[in-house]
Amino acid sequence: xxxxxxxxxxxxxxxxxxxxxxxxxxxxxxxxxxxxxxxxxxxxxxxxxxxxxxxxxxxxxxxxxxxxxxxxxxxxxxxxxxxxxxxxxxxxxxxxxxxxxxxxxxxxxxxxxxxxxxxxxxxxxxxxxxxxxxxxxxxxxxxxxxxxxxxxxxxxxxxxxxxxxxxxxxxxxxxxxxxxxxxxxxxxxxxxxxxxxxxxxxxxxxxxxxxxxxxxxxxxxxxxxxxxxxxxxxxxxxxxxxxxxxxxxxxxxxxxxxxxxxxxxxxxxxxxxxxxxxxxxxxxxxxxxxxxxxxxxxxxxxxxxxxxxxxxxxxxxxxxxxxxxxxxxxxxxxxxxxxxxxxxxxxxxxxxxxxxxxxxxxxxxxxxxxxxxxxxxxxxxxxxxxxxxxxxxxxxxxxxxxxxxxxxxxxxxxxxxxxxxxxxxxxxxxxxxxxxxxxxxxxxxxxxxxxxxxxxxxxxxxxxxxxxxxxxxxxxxxxxxxxxxxxxxxxxxxxxxxxxxxxxxxxxxxxxxxxxxxxxxxxxxxxxxxxxxxxxxxxxxxxxxxxxxxxxxxxxxxxxxxxxxxxxxxxxxxxxxx
Length: 578
Prior knowledge:
The protein has 13 helices and 26 strands. It is an alpha+beta fold.
């Protein structure tokens, strides 16, 4: 059963909150122009890094030295610029030693530092944060923007977009202190994280019982504690992915050079792999691995980045840990219900291999760089050079507002040069953009709302054990919608309503979409401009449902309105509805 059902629509109500049951149904409206396929010409921008075999930046090339391929077909380069400064370290001009010095880049630079919650000893943590501060100082100029977001189970913006480097340093110093901890050996890390998820575990177990999974095990043979911890890890990863996509979507409208530096703690191919290993799953049961395989989810972040024109620099600060398991006395019997086998000596390597391959894939796909552990300090100066010494080029292409990915490749006449740029151009439909933003809002990142919609919860009805029906009424001002003049003088338009809910364990319902076309008679236009459409839904919910997100898309004008509701306890909603 789908978690939503549309039960009534108040169609074209020129007074607020009309009753759909008594509203006469108008004749079908004519087709509204703009709802079919449209072809537009779009500009695809590419920032290209060119190095020689030694890794030195190559300068002095012209657009005739480059070929851009979209899906294997050569494209005409419409715009071309080279940015660089001869004083930058590591920059060379092997074939153009007398090339004139170029001015500093004039493109605005926008970067986000997304820093996960992790703990490192000072001797490992301090060089990373010091290098990060130096990198920001090397990138940001007056008029640029850097923001800092902390992830600790939810996204917290510690510093809004600014070019104030003193404020950046202060915030990073505070984060550095918060990231100081014991050496990240596998055992200590697991003890710390198990302590963090005790409150989550109780909710996870309750949810599993509600789903009929039982409390003593399941058909994969994995101990319940292992599964509960893996569920927690997967929920965290899903939430983090949604927030990253939301940040990327927020950067899509920015001009110039854009990047996110992501210092990750858990962004892996298999969610909770370390818990499985410590729980005795060695080798990992194939069914369990498939259930918690999150590689495609993680890699989808690269698609969103390429659609927004953002370069990603994913970094794994913990690198290779220091885990040693000399004997069974180091087992975790004090925090896990049953004794767990001592992990093998390759535990840390397996954890590292679970984290770093997808980070590398994300970096390559978006034209960025990736590193782990102490190698981050060596990588960051190269990342800073990406903002000062590069080629910027663009070509025109036709887009259809459809979900399509196009493979990109850039080559040079000299086959020995190495090229780094994003590997895809991603088109996204209006519907996909709305769906991604409505999901991000469920995880705490609120998109900009261009239509002032409102939503109200009605009287809640209990329909069964832990089952509830929550009426939801959405209203929007008619004047906010774009209409098309009709031959007879009437005005026609269309809007789509999207609704989804989020649960306490990070679940997300299916997104229900309903499209409604409308016609405003010419004589009612003035009255309609002062009136409101209403739309009614019944939300089929259970004890897990705690928040609802609503979006309304103007199908003609393409503006979107968003609304977010945090639900009070069921008992309170039912009492208020009496």
